[in-house]
Design brief:
By secondary structure, the protein is of the alpha+beta class. Helices cover 27% and strands 21% of the residues.
Length: 717
């Protein structure tokens, strides 16, 4: 063997750990796109033919918190529009979230003769690639290789057609995941077509082609209509390339966005810049140790945590406000967060890594609230903007008008009305919300979710009280703090569960703690999954039980008594009756720590991280919905040994990290380190900067000192 080759080989063996693998190489955007079908994964035998909720994520190209998410559509009205088990593609849409909405302006390259009822193409996962900021798939029907990349507000399509085939493009302007109320597409230049689609917002586009635009024909068949774009000189060898700028303001602004972000850049450069952007974000948390699988899940989850909320303002900061006016207030405008889901963890992660985005989101919320009746926007259920804003401010993100935000949050908490907290009048009058007296409630019954609202409003009161204290509003601080114990009002000591009451104050008699409700008493949960939620008052919550032993017995039962086989689309992935596939019980494992059984907390956390993030036959399914990044952020925090148990408070519960060492760079460029000492699961001690920490929490202010957090572990005997 050549001595130089031998030397290189030896050096490679010795330094084999230094692979210099980019962090984006660990990310698999397809993770979470598969649906669970197997009984051992679901937790029950599926009898209903309809699929359960998957993670509802998309595999396409996007930048962090961007306006554009350029991704394939395999089904309309199906979560994020892409299901791994599907075999056809209808087009590539430009907006996404994962909640059965968006999917603006789907485009599909085609050849030959097509009809409005028949234009979709088959594809195979063997000829599909997904990478942060890039997506590729081969369309079998047309023998076209499709490649997609993007910037914040623009999409770049590159389609390689078979030699000699005429290049055509289907624009299915009548379809999205929302009802389309209006649309327009027209040729407006030699290489240009423009228009808009109105469906959950009016999205304008400015599309520039490298081939001349010949014609745009409307094809109609029965109740279906599509637009067919044809191109001049279309049998040329060069791929068809489309650079498309988008704006929610105007075509002119879409053009401006394109000219600022993409106009002079080739596909390779845009793709490279997207990868670089993601690499920079992912490098904010560098992990050492762990398996390649664990690193893959970790960085895939970190990636998935930064796709929503989405940008809605243009490069000049123009946006459409709540009154449908064009406004420019000097900040970037964003969609509302998915508060009921991601207030628990993801929004705190956003603030730690991308404080500038977080501040813009808060300003966006304030702007919306002032223009929609004076109530701070919420999402779906609860009132958790208070938690997000309090937690962000107390972690040092103060470059916004706290008094303006507080005025809205206080109205949410004190003034009943459309736009505020549902059933607030009941809550204020008696400290709890009543439920109807009924029997045989179907799983999907829509009612008050009275128990869940009551206990969550108590926590929202606490978060709003923290802001009142910061602003010196002592009167409202005392009033709100007086309400923070309302979660106790629906605790039934006879059963050890939180339980609904009817209007006269009697307990609901038809009470089965195992039965999963959608909105009767509990929100998307059963009574087991609704236990132990009072993150602001743990001691008071535990005191509802006769002893810590009673709490431990209740917890042990939750994690060991089997799920009874109830089928619910939104519930999968069980440990006993704990359901990781939905958010309501994600806080419960940490309860063990407060009764001196931290090792049991860790056993559950390890089980969840090991089982529920690459499930199913293809190892591409989550246990349930990612919910705009909440489930992903849950994994990120627990893998590094920190968790936002009470996100309104500027502190983190310390757990045993999955990795040996973590280097975390905050948004202010301060870097702290987390190190695991030993391979046990029981925490023997916690030090920060060499000093012992008392208890289980470390403050955000301490982390900003940039020292080393050491978690000393020992084996459980």
């Amino acid at each position: 063997m050549n001595k130089h080759l031998l030397l290189f080989t030896c050096m490679f063996i010795i330094c084999g750990c230094r692979t210099d693998k980019k962090l984006t190489g660990y990310v698999n955007p397809l993770l979470g796109t598969a649906t669970l079908w197997e009984p051992e994964d679901l937790g029950y035998v599926r009898k209903i033919r309809e699929r359960t909720w998957g993670a509802e994520v998309f595999p396409g190209a996007s930048l962090p918190n961007a306006m554009v998410q350029l991704s394939p559509v395999t089904q309309f009205r199906s979560g994020a529009g892409y299901q791994y088990e599907d075999t056809v593609i209808y087009g590539f849409a430009h907006t996404n979230k994962g909640h059965w909405n968006l999917l603006h302006i789907p485009l599909l390259p085609v050849t030959g003769n097509i009809t409005p009822q028949d234009y979709r193409s088959g594809f195979s996962h063997e000829n599909e690639t997904a990478h942060p900021g890039y997506y590729q798939v081969f369309l079998k029907r047309y023998r076209i290789n499709a490649e997609l990349t993007s910037t914040l507000r623009c999409g770049y399509h590159r389609y390689t057609f078979p030699p000699g085939e005429e290049k055509k493009l289907v624009a299915d302007m009548t379809r999205s995941n929302n009802r389309v109320t209006n649309w327009k597409i027209e040729k407006t230049g030699d290489h240009l077509f423009t228009g808009f689609q109105q469906a959950e917002g009016k999205l304008y586009f400015y599309a520039l082609s490298n081939y001349p635009v010949n014609n745009i024909e409307q094809l109609k068949e029965d109740d279906r209509e599509i637009s067919l774009v044809t191109f001049g000189d279309s049998k040329g060898k060069k791929p068809l390339e489309l650079k498309i700028g988008f704006s929610f303001v105007s075509v002119e602004n879409a053009q401006m966005n394109l000219e600022q972000e993409m106009i002079d850049k080739p596909f390779s450069r845009v793709r490279k810049e997207a990868d670089k952007t993601w690499e920079s974000l992912l490098s904010k948390i560098e992990v050492t140790g762990g398996t390649e699988r664990e690193k893959g899940i970790f960085y895939s989850c970190l990636y998935r945590s930064f796709l929503w909320p989405a940008l809605r303002s243009d490069v000049n900061k123009d946006y459409i406000d709540e009154r449908n006016h064009v406004v420019n207030n000097g900040f970037h405008y964003y969609t509302n967060p998915s508060f009921w889901d991601d207030y628990r963890n993801k929004l705190i992660l956003l603030g730690m890594i991308s404080p500038e985005v977080t501040l813009d989101v808060i300003q966006s919320l304030t702007d919306k609230g002032e223009k929609r009746g004076g109530y701070m926007p919420t999402f779906f259920h609860g009132d958790h903007a208070s938690v997000f804003i309090a937690g962000s401010y107390l972690r040092g993100l103060k470059d916004f008008d706290l008094e303006r935000a507080y005025k809205l949050l206080l109205k949410n908490a004190t003034v009943p009305g459309r736009g505020g907290r549902p059933y607030l009048d009941e809550y204020m009058e008696r400290g709890w919300i009543a439920e109807k007296d009924t029997t045989n409630v179907p799983t999907w019954d829509e009612y008050k979710a009275a128990v869940t609202k009551t206990v969550e409003y108590a926590y929202d009161d606490y978060a709003t009280a923290l802001i009142a204290k910061e602003l010196g509003d002592e009167e409202n601080y005392r009033m709100l703090m007086g309400r923070t114990g309302n979660y106790k009002n629906l605790f039934d000591p006879g059963t050890g569960f939180w339980r609904g009451k009817i209007d006269n104050g009697d307990w609901i008699e038809d009470f089965d703690p195992f039965y999963p409700y959608y909105a009767y008493m509990f929100r998307e949960a059963n009574a087991w999954q609704s236990l132990f939620f009072a993150p602001h008052d743990v001691d008071g919550m535990l005191a509802l039980y006769p002893s810590h032993q009673a709490v431990e017995l209740k917890l042990d039962s939750l994690f060991t008594v089997p799920w009874k086989g109830y089928e619910a689309h939104n519930m999968t992935g069980f440990i006993g009756n704990y359901c990781h596939g939905n958010q309501p019980d994600h806080h419960i494992p940490y309860t063990y720590t407060f009764i001196g059984r931290q090792e049991k907390t860790q056993a559950v956390l390890d089980s969840i991280m090991g089982r529920f993030y690459d499930m199913g036959a293809d190892k591409l399914a989550y246990a349930g919905m990612d919910d705009a990044g909440e489930m992903s952020a849950w994994y990120v925090f627990n893998a590094i040994g920190l968790y936002t148990y009470s996100p309104a408070d500027p502190e983190y519960m310390v757990t045993v990290p999955l990795f040996d060492k973590i280097r975390f760079t905050l948004g202010d460029n301060t870097t702290f380190t987390i190190r695991k000492s030993g391979n046990g699961k029981k925490i023997q001690g916690i030090t920060y900067g060499g000093n012992k920490l008392e208890g289980w929490f470390i403050s955000h202010r301490q982390l900003q000192e940039g020292k080393e957090l050491t978690v000393q572990t020992e084996d459980i005997r």
